Amino acid sequence: YFTSLRQLERQLELSLTKPPPLEACRVPDAPPELADSFEVEHVVESHRLMSQVLAMALACDQTRVFNMVFSDAASSLHTAGSSDSHHSLTHEEPDDHELGYQPRAPAFVMRTMEAWTEFVQALAATPEGDGTLLDNCLVMCHSESSDANTHSVSGLPVILAGRAGGRVKPGIHVRGVGESTTRVALTMQQVMGLPVASFGVRQNATSRPVSEVLA
Asked: What b-and-e string marks burial along 116-136, b requiring 16 or more CB atoms within 10 Å of the CB?
C-alpha cells in the first residue's frame, strides 16, 4: 500500500516538474487542427505530429516507456473516396492470381510502415549525448497478425529499432521458427536493465532472450 502511494507521489512529482535543460529539449509548435477521420492519409498526418511530440517527450526526459498505435485490430482505415476499410478488404478482397496476393489491402500496411519509419527517423534526428535519441532507445514494431485474412499469428513479424545505448546489435535478422514473441519482450526488458528472468504465461512463458541481437 505504502509502496503504491510512493509510486503515485513520484509520478505526480515528475508530471509537475519542468523538463531539464537537455540539449534537444524544446517545446514543439502547436499542432494544426486535423480532420477526425479514418482516412489513411489523415491518420498518417496525425501519426507524424504525434511522432514529433513523442520524440520531444523522450528528449526532455518526460517519459521513457511508451506505446503507440497506428490502427487497431479491426482497422477502419480507408482511402479517400472509398468506403472499403482495411479490415474488410483483408477478408473480402480476392487474391490477384497473377500477383499472388490481394492488390489493395497491402497498401495500408505499406502506409503504416512508412509512418513508423518517419517516427524512427524523428528519433534518429534528435541529438542526445554523443549520438542520437535512437541510439539510446529500443523501439519494437509489430503487427497483431501475420496474415490478416486468417488472423494467423504464426511467423508474426517483429522489428527492433535502436541500439539501447550500445547493448543491441543492428542489422540482425532472426527467424523465430515457431518461438513465442515473448522472447523479444524478455530481451528488451533485460537489455534495459530490468531484473527479469522470465516473461509470459503458459505456453508463451520463456526464460530465453534473443541472444543473437545482444552486443
From this structure: beebbebbbebebeeebbbbb
**pLDDT (tens digit, 9 = 90+) per residue, 103-160?**
898 888 899 999 999 999 999 999 998 999 999 999 999 988 888 888 888 888 899 9
What are 206's strand-pairing partners? 199
Measuring CA to CA, how many Å separate 44 from each of 50, 146, 157, 162? Answer: 10, 22, 21, 22
Task: Choose among 170, 207, 166: nearest CA to 189.
Answer: 207
Beta pairing partners, 141: 159
Residue whose C-alpha is closest to residue 34's, from 51, 46, 26: 46
84 to 44, 48, 189: CA distances (angstroms) = 18, 24, 39
Q: What is the pTM of this model?
A: 0.81
